[in-house]
Amino acid sequence: MRKITKAVIPVAGLGTRMLPATKEIPKELLPILDKPVIQYVVEEAVNAGISEIIFVTNTSKGAIKNHFKQNLTLEKYLKEKKKKDTLSKFPNYLFKKINFSSVLQKTPLGLGHAILAAEKKIKNEDFAVFLPDEFLVSKTDKSDFNRMLVNYSKTNQNQILVEKIPKKMISNYGVVKLKSNKISVIKPENILDIIEKPSNRDAPSDKRVVGRYILPSIIFKFLKKTKPGADNEIQLTDALRKMILQNSDSFQATLSESKIFDCGSMKGFVGANIAMGLKDKDLKKHIMETLI
Ligand code: G1P
User: What is the percentage of the chain residues whose pLDDT exceeds 70?
Assistant: First the structure.
């Protein structure tokens, strides 16, 4: 089985949709129940075998890096109070064997620009990208990313996660044109084209790109040549498009079977908290009582 060991997680976004909460606190540290969004995303990656996490940050996101480091004062206190359970949920305990590093994106010029910042860390390997705004609650015991890895290893093709959404929402996302409509959760499909934030009329399908990718390192070559596109940003989608139009076998879409929340927005953030709360027996009772 081909292995993917590195994941790039861009965390340089300003979080403007969640102000004033995100004025001083990075949006990635906002909690779903008692755990920051970013910790769930790192768990999702690590549970699928990723051993190296590369954050793309800006200078005001130091708190994210700190979250994954040891806090000696707090640890001493918890040990004295014999609160081993609490301590065992700390990232530096959970992710002992994981290598964390970060690269700086000096100016926010778009997702493609952020990914390009990680080039030196990736070198010549295929790698994963996780966009942490997308909070995926799996309906099965396997995550979507796990299934992407299986597809990648079976077909030797790079993978992009997609989900079907109502056409009226499509212009907010990257949208794929597939080789056939036969895509299903057990059957990935070749991507023939991909367009960033198309108008409803120009959208090639109702399948939007979800923030999980398995990419080849050659994408950096394409990113370097990519000019600003939608929203005047350097778009990852535009670099992917150039690759796909050169070779229609280079990328497959894996269909998501998760419930997906956009945690960079208030609705998504509240939805994710409720969804996770309902998964916990005690909290579920509490939520139901509160709602009545
Ligand atoms: C980015 C990608 C887009 C994708 C989306 C998923 O858009 O450019 O293709 O569908 O993430 O969250 P952004 O959220 O930066 O507008």
Answer: 99
**Element counts in the chain: helices (H) and strands (E):** 12, 13
| Share of the chain residues as helix, strand and coil, in percent rounded to the nearest 5 | 40, 25, 35
Name residues whose C-beta falls within 8 Å of residue 198's C-beta, 6 or more positions apart in sequence: 170, 171, 175, 204
Shortest-distance atom of ligand 1 to CA 133: 12
Question: What pLDDT sits at residue 1?
Answer: 56
User: How far is CA 132 from each of CA 28, 52, 75, 177, rounded to the nearest angstrom?
Assistant: 7, 16, 27, 24
Which residues does residue 134 pair with via DSSP β-bridges, in sequence order? 262
**Overall residue count recorded for the chain in this entry:** 292
Would you state the structure tokens that stand for residue 181, as one six-digit string?
A: 């409509």
135 lines ligand 1 (CB under 6 A): no
- The candidate with the shortest Cα–Cα distance to 136, out of 37, 30, 207, is 37
Using the mean position of ligand 1's atoms as its centre, give its distance from the Cα of residue 172 in Å.
7
Binning pLDDT at 50, 70 and 90, where does residue 46 land?
Answer: very high
pLDDT score for 60? 86
Residue labelled with tokens 């997906």: 260
CA distance linking residue 100 with residue 136, whole number of Å: 22
CB 200 within 8 A of CB 167: yes
Torsion angle of the four alpha carbons 15, 21, 22, 23, in this order, in degrees rounded to the nearest 10: 120
Model's pTM, two decimal places?
0.96
Tell me what pLDDT residue 109 has: 95
- The H or E element that residue 190 is part of is strand 189-196
Question: What is the average pLDDT across 37-59?
Answer: 96
Residue type, 25: I
The total of other beta-carbon atoms located within 10 Å of residue 123's CB is 10
Instruction: Indicate the pLDDT class of residue 116, thresholds 50, 70 and 90.
Output: very high
On average, the pLDDT of the chain sits at 95
208 lines ligand 1 (CB under 6 A): yes
